[in-house]
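Fig. S4 source data, part A: sequence.
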Amino acid sequence: MHNGFYAKLALQSIRENSRLYNPFIISSIVSVMMTFVILSLSVNSGLKQIPGGANLQTILALGYVILVLFSAIFLFYMNSFLMKNRKKEFGIYNILGMDKKHISKILSYEILFIYFVSLIVGLIAGLLLNKVATLLIRRMLAAPVSLGFELSMQPILWTSAFFLLIFLAVLLVNIYQVRLANPIELLKASNTGEKEPKIKIVWTIIALLLMGVGYYLALTIQSPILGMQLVFLAILIVIAATYLLFTTGTITFSKLLKKNKRYYYQTKHFIPISGMLYRMKKNAVGLANISILSVGVVLMFSIAASLYLTTDNSVNTQYPRDVISEVKVGNSDAETEDTTKTRIQEVVEQISAETNIQVEDFLSYTYLNFPAQRDKNGFTLTQDVYSTQTNQTPANLYFVDQDNYQEISGDQLDLAENEVVVHGTVQAYKANTLSLLNQQFEVREEDNIEEFAIGNETSNAVNDGYYIIVSSPEVLQEIDQSQQDVLQEMTTPTSVFSQFDLVNATKEEKIDFSNYYQDKINEEKMNITNVDTRVEANGNFRALRGGVLFLVLNLALLLLMMTVLIIYYKQISEAYDDKERFRIMRNVGLSDAEIKQAIRSQMLSVFFLPVFVTGVHTLVMLPLMKKGMVLVMLNQVNLFPLSLFLAFVIFLLVYIMIYRITAKTYYKIVK
């Protein structure tokens, strides 16, 4: 037969199965469009010139890899539904005289048509959306709006190549399935049901225990960064427990309902319960997939909403002046520290005179920082404090003497030699004494101490933080020497932190001033560890926020599309499987109203069980996600619970809409 015949059959097959193919084609187009836009932004030459643009493009380049991976998994998953519902058609072709080679040709032309349609439409939509995305990114980075249009062949070629590989892999899997099956298997493939499963109480208990372990880990992890391994472990345990609960717990629950004769032997209960038991294994896996994807959708949309609502005030908290610097002081004593402060101020005044840029609000103070484990009597410091294997995340301790505290805040404390003031940034320190490094201190309560930052830190760090104000530089030096004896080569030297404003200076002048300042400090042979400007920090923060926001939105839309299509295909597949069953029920005397009631009962249980599980999962993940958002939102993480609630409400409304649409389609097919 001529190749044109196979091409014609492929086109006709796509038209005849439009109910199955249209969602697959639309999802392919959207996947191409999103990946093209992300890649285009990651290589856009104009964005590189914006402060923070390079960091944003790095994030987008990494996100592109994730997006391609998700797209591949998504398309393979959708294709599996397509093949299941079309195997009967291929079996008929086989019986009518077509061998598997001819069926493979039809499949090849179908995939070829879908690939080119998806690629062309997706790239055209991507080109239009790319300009909108570029303008949005420029606005987020507070950069001038460019009216030009940049077109690069690299994103087009890479996107075309990646999706060609994905569609070729899909085609090979389809051909392999067809070649392995015989005609009878193909005819019966779409009608193959699951045997009624046995009750699995032991596995249900194991699933509940695993869920409890996963929830405990998620709720007790103090730092999602230092405890990254535990975070992944908690996620994997919760996912595994979710699958186990759906595949065993739902069976156990349905079996218990079946044993309740008063409940089970009613028309509105008998049909949905027996129907769910008939193919529970297949349903359970699908429901677990929907639940896990739904959690991803809600979390992604809530992160996006939080990032969009947050402001640059978080950067101003971390960078109280235009320029900040940090110099480490070795073998610290009061004389060395005062000398270092004086030399830093002289350098700043010299640069100010040379550049004609006025400096004001110069502030320089000494502080000491190291981590320690919290206990009931104070803090314990050992060499294991930096180990990632410890069960408890250490707290960050920031020490400053009362003279330096007065420099920072303007308040005078008049502490006795053995007195300290402790200010917890996350949790209050309520004990009356403090034990640290074999020293005992009396803790004085000071209600008028407000939130403040020491060094390049914020009050909402990833870990718990405590600001400890001691009476004198001598006490601070004793603590410094003691921590050096314990930590040895891992010790943290005392730092001199300086900050100042530049009057009427442009962004470029502030950056040039900081670069010149760093060079001068290096010439003075001082151990400078950090020089930064608020201008650069704002640019980097906006880039981080914009990159994560853009990436999260794309992933959220992709996950939402996956969830919607999995539900759609699942309901279509279930409808064709149930059609014969409900025809038999109608023949034995059930009315259309009774059948519709049974369908509604089954649909409600199938649809809204994943919503309940999604709600529980997101509530448990809230504390962990709130800590993780510190990395991109700094001190405005309180927005996250509100964003999470709004995201869940929006998701629920979309989910109900999907339910109404698929319920009508399901009933039409069954009827």
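Fig. S4 source data, part B ends here. The mean pLDDT is 76.
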